[in-house]
Specification:
This protein has 1 helix and no strands. By secondary structure, it is mostly helical. The N and C termini lie far apart (about 105 Å). The model has no long low-confidence stretch (mean pLDDT about 90).
């Protein structure tokens, strides 16, 4: 039969390794969330710019049509 001290000394490093792995996974999760948030903001800016360009092109076409009508 093994002594309780030996068993505790085996379990402690395993628990420590699990804690380190949990910390690593939490950090990785936070990093991935930040990446997703950044990409979402970038997509929002891109879509806003695309909308602005489309509106400007429509305005230019209307202005050119009005100029030709003169």
């Amino acid at each position: 039969m093994s002594s309780p001290n030996r068993r505790t000394s085996i379990i402690a490093p395993v628990n420590n390794n699990l804690d380190l792995e949990n910390d690593r996974l939490r950090i990785e999760e936070e990093r991935l969330k930040n990446i997703l948030n950044g990409l979402n903001l970038k997509l929002t800016v891109f879509n806003d710019l695309k909308t602005d360009v489309d509106q400007q092109n429509t305005l230019i076409k209307k202005s050119e049509a009005a100029r030709e009508g003169l």
